[in-house]
Amino acid sequence: MSETEYDYDLFTIGIGSGGTRASRVAAAHGARVAAAEEHRVGGTCVIRGCVPKKMLVYGAQFAEDLEDCQAFGWTIEGKKFDWKTLRDNVFRDVSRIEGVYTETLEKHDVTLFHERAEITGDHEITLASGKVVTAKYILIATGATPHVPDFEGSEHVITSNEAFHLDEVPGCILITGGGYIANEFAGIFNEFGSKVVIANRSDVILRGYDFSLRDRLMQISMTKGIEFLFHAEIEKVTKKEDGTYSVKMTGLEERSFDKVMVATGRKPNTEGLGLENVGVKMGDKGEIKVDEFSKSSVDYIYAVGDVTDRVQLTPVAIREGQAFADSIFGDVEPYSVDHTCVPSAVFSHPPIASVGLNEREAKEQYGQVKTYTSDFRPMKNVVAGRNERSLIKMICDGANGQILGIHMIGPYAPEIMQAAAVAVKAKMNKADFDATVAIHPTVAEELVLMR
Ligand code: NDP
């Protein structure tokens, strides 16, 4: 088939963060683009992930602020939290953002099919309606979905997908898993008054983050009333007559909860896409194997974002989508995304943020490292009488002072880390930070005052 005989230059399956960016940019480069989305435009980040989660985090933070404000002279009588108000306001804004995404695609003349798509032959896509189209390139950007381990009664649990839609805040909730979602939702529900229990299969939370931050988050979370269970995997969940759930975990007596939420990682969405029909290679988790340019084992099929299970973060998916579209349809040399030194944050209470190597990784890779730590109680917490300390850790190459990683837990950590990440990515030294005058009084000034 010659190029002009294809219906489209690009057909994107999945209109989340990566798929939207790739489609819009490809169209801007002059490609004829169509896309299919079976759920809602915006994908996980906008509809059931980062965006609504951050709004809940803001909502939850008021619980502490309303408590702390009294030490600053404020009296707030009759304070009361209404979950449905927050939930519905979040939904409203999510719909607004979905509209913005849709409008952007329409403005770029991307044809949008609101239905499921499957690859049914070489360069051929069949839509749920039966319509068959062809495309020179196919981009898979279908994201990932919560992974629920196999146990009896697993049909009774919720995942983060459903957590946004609850009718009420659960009186007590078990969250299984110890990663991003478990710790973020534990903070949210705890601030809204739930009794929260986190149960993880191992004895660590947030594997991959620096151990000092993990310990500090656990200590603060426990002080706030969150309970942690380790080496505890769910064996069975039984729904009781009163609507609550009885949960049996390894080595523990049965316990009752109003809700059981599973946050044990996310698996790539590759089932039923017809990838086997054309020979696309996949890994053990069902992820699409791609090269540095996001090309799969099939020459004309590319994949970006969580479906490739490289780094499951929205900004990474967006970069991959942009690089794909520029490289294939733009007037530039093909380029790839640098997956190293990616900053990240956990929107727990308080939040964690990190960039570069943690202390263990730095020691393994560099041998001699120098670690600077600032362990302090932020001024606001002191006045409020909140016994909650922040921690910043800077890890440098012992040989030349190059900053290998910065890790922080405390108020505004993600906001501060975004700027600090520029310095780490640019391979700056501790001396560059030392030479910078502090902005006083701030939490961030600790970064340039560590000795
Ligand atoms: P994570 O990968 O963060 O954590 C998974 C947790 O579940 C770990 O504690 C792990 O334990 C445990 N686990 C894994 N498999 C099993 C199993 N079969 N049975 C029992 N426990 C298991 O996953 P999340 O679901 O929290 O989040 C998914 C991804 O989404 C994240 O990795 C992140 O990339 C992204 N995300 C990013 C956010 C952000 O940027 N703020 C927010 C939310 C999600 P162990 O470590 O002991 O093996």
- The helix content is 25-40%
What amount of the residues lies in strands? 15-25%
The total of beta strands comes to 21
Hetero compounds: NADPH dihydro-nicotinamide-adenine-dinucleotide phosphate
CATH architecture of the largest domain: 3-Layer(bba) Sandwich
Under CATH at level 1, the class of the largest domain stands as Alpha Beta
What oligomeric assembly is this protein in? single chain
User: Which descriptor suits the 3D outline?
Assistant: globular
Whole-number tally of structural domains: 3
* DSSP summary: helix tally: 14
Write a concise keyword list for the protein shown above.
3 domains, alpha/beta, five-stranded antiparallel sheet, seven-stranded mixed sheet, 451 residues, binds NADPH dihydro-nicotinamide-adenine-dinucleotide phosphate, FAD/NAD(P)-binding domain, Enolase-like, domain 1
